[in-house]
Specification:
This protein is an alpha/beta fold. The protein contains 12 helices and 12 strands.
């Protein structure tokens, strides 16, 4: 039975709607201004730690929840960054992503991860479309394939974009490891040890990093007056390094190998061990990446260290500058360093004449 209107009004008076806690309520409880509450809510750094904690305590006591939708309408910012990446399976990508998430969180931003199935123009364009629906302020792309330098990818107008590890060209801001420096350090180290027959185990042609490293190896050999032969093509995997390592082991003239990553270097070393070739007594091996396990290879691997954490942090720092309307500042190429271990040693006293390339 429906109660009379008078009873409905009475019930309404007995159960008033709960008032939403406002920013002013938080400010009053914390003894600060609403502007200070706003800065804390937005993750701004220009608030003293003690004041920030008072505001956070007041928010917790009042169960205050910032209205992100209203804030976005007011400021035009969503405090969210999209990350487009091809694979989560590599050490470098995971460390880079971790640094991006940490830097974004520290600046009061959330991350929307958008993985793509293949590093192609179409996949990246589709990821941009999906990110627009998620309302992000800017995008970081971690796809190291040769694609953005010639891509017909349409970037939404006004959306800041930072590219990691790709030759994207002038339209984009790029943050990357100094690929040339790293390979030059590795190759020159072997040359300084007296090696003249140095083989390069390269990554796939589709990879920006691989082609830069291969070109640097070639140039360093030429600068030393040495004639480089064609690189041996791997695919970043230990299996490809193992296959090529067996071919290298059959040659008596080769005394050193520069592998484009540590996993292929591991495969090469495995094959050399299987063929009874001494490392570094007969053949020295140098890698690139300085993975956590590289110091536990047998022998421990001389390799090039990449600072993936700095790459991620620097890319986020650059993106935040773009979001604030500032020009991207600072050096966006992160230097490398050579980590010298036991896998590389002096060249043997004498090496046999060069075998023909047909042996590989």
């Amino acid at each position: 039975m429906t109660p009379p209107p008078s009873e409905i009004k009475s019930a309404s008076r007995r159960a008033p709607r709960t008032r939403t806690v406002s920013m002013a309520d938080v400010a009053a409880r914390a003894g600060v201004s609403s502007q200070t509450v706003s800065r804390v809510s937005n993750g701004a750094q220009n608030v003293e730690d003690g004041t920030r904690q008072k505001v956070l305590d007041a928010m917790a006591a009042l169960d205050y929840r910032p209205n992100s939708a209203a804030r976005a309408l007011k400021t035009g910012r969503f405090r969210s960054v999209g990350v487009i990446m091809f694979t989560l399976s590599t050490l470098g990508n995971m460390r880079t992503l971790d640094a991006i998430v940490t830097a974004a969180s520290g600046a009061g931003y959330t991350i929307t991860l958008m993985p793509v199935a293949q590093p192609t123009e179409g996949e990246v364009a589709g990821a941009f479309s999906r990110l627009q629906e998620e309302a992000v302020d800017g995008v970081v792309i971690i796809i190291e394939a040769h694609m953005l330098d010639r891509a017909d990818v349409i970037i939404p107008s006004g959306l800041p974009v930072v590219i990691i590890d790709s030759d994207a060209g002038d339209p984009f801001v790029v943050v990357d490891t100094d690929q040339e420096q790293g390979t030059r350090l590795a190759t020159q180290h072997l040359i300084d040890l007296g090696h003249t027959r140095i083989v390069h185990v390269a990554g796939p042609d589709t990879s920006y990093s691989a082609t830069r490293r291969s070109a640097s190896w070639h140039a360093t050999m030429r600068d030393a007056g040495l004639e480089p032969e064609a690189p041996l093509k791997g695919d970043w995997t230990t299996a490809s390094g193992h296959r090529l390592g067996h071919a290298i082991a059959s040659r008596d003239d080769v005394t050193a190998v520069v592998a484009a990553n540590d996993q292929m270097a591991l495969g090469v070393m495995h094959a050399l061990h299987e063929r009874g070739r001494s490392i570094p007594g007969e053949i020295s091996v140098v890698g690139f990446d300085d993975t956590d396990e590289s110091g536990s290879f047998w022998p421990p691997l001389t390799t090039v260290h990449q600072d993936f954490g700095e790459i991620g942090a620097r890319s986020m720092r650059v993106l935040l500058e773009l979001l604030e309307g500032k020009p991207a500042s600072g050096d966006r190429i992160v230097p490398t360093r050579l980590v010298v271990r036991e896998s590389a040693g002096p060249a043997p006293a004498a090496a046999a004449p060069r075998a023909s390339d047909s042996q590989i």
